[in-house]
Design goal:
Helix 1 packs parallel to helix 3 and helix 5 crosses helix 6. It contains 11 helices and 9 strands. By secondary structure, it is an alpha/beta fold.
């Protein structure tokens, strides 16, 4: 368990909880603790889905600019790779991941939210990539994941201007998926994640990998990725259980074993 980031596990759901007062600034230590929490969530069999949460007041307001301000070009050449890979560790969790966004999700905080499969946000949440206002660009996936999510023109508007995106606009453009009152966001994210506590884990893993890898390639290659993942699931015990249950009891009643 890290000083500022911890993985809390209950009822099949792991919460990656950021807790660095006051704004969950993502300094190097926090970045590496996020990586460690993501790796632990990946490896633990009792974690079936993951919530990324910054607390009741703020998700994460961005990188630690005071730490970055004195870094040279060569410093950042060395650090930029680990920065990207720390957040990408969340994107690579082979389980459903939901970001529960309250308050600000800016810069690196927005990039962290983009690593989730879905994003639930408070109706007063604020998102954005304001790096351009510091004379830089997003460096932890913002130019890439944001573009894939909302399209190039909307991503360019957000990145070029550095403007804040209010929750209602974020929902309209697909930057977030659902809005809730701030006090309900985490509970709603937990409820979504708990749906997978008894799900067919390897089928979920295959679905996530097929979608994510398919986005990176042409259609024919994507279809081949899907075909291979689909066929491979016929080697799992859950496939046998699921099909037998369907034949004998109808849909939605299988008791999967996660193997």
């Amino acid at each position: 368990m890290g000083e500022f980031v911890r993985l809390e596990v209950a009822d099949g759901v792991g919460t990656i909880r950021l807790d660095r007062p006051k704004m969950n600034a993502l300094n190097v230590q926090v970045q590496e603790e996020i990586r460690a929490a993501a790796v632990e969530a990946t490896e633990r069999d009792d974690v079936k889905a993951v919530v990324v949460y910054g607390g009741e007041r703020v998700f994460a307001a961005g990188a630690d600019i005071k730490e970055m301000a004195d870094m040279s070009y060569t410093d950042m050449v060395k650090r930029s790779g680990p920065l990207q890979s720390a957040l990408s560790a969340v994107a690579r969790i082979p389980k459903p991941v939901v970001a529960a966004i309250t308050g600000y999700a800016l810069g690196g905080g927005c990039e962290l939210a983009l690593c989730a499969d879905v994003r639930f946000a408070a109706d007063d949440a604020v998102l954005g990539q304001p790096e351009i206002l510091l004379g830089i660009i997003p460096g932890a996936g913002g130019t890439q994941r944001l573009t894939r999510l909302v399209g190039p023109s909307k991503a360019k508007d957000i990145v070029f201007t550095g403007r804040f995106v209010q929750a209602d606009e974020a929902l309209a453009i697909g930057l977030v998926d659902r809005l809730f009152p701030a006090e309900s966001v985490y509970d709603e994210a937990l409820a979504w994640a708990r749906r997978f506590a008894g799900a067919a884990s390897y089928a979920l893993r295959a679905a996530k990998e097929s979608i994510d890898r398919g986005l990176e390639v042409d259609l024919e290659t994507g279809l081949e990725i899907e075909r291979q993942q689909f066929a491979a699931l016929f080697a799992t015990e859950d496939r046998t259980i699921g099909m037998r249950s369907f034949v004998e009891n109808g849909p939605g009643k299988a008791q999967f074993e996660g193997r």
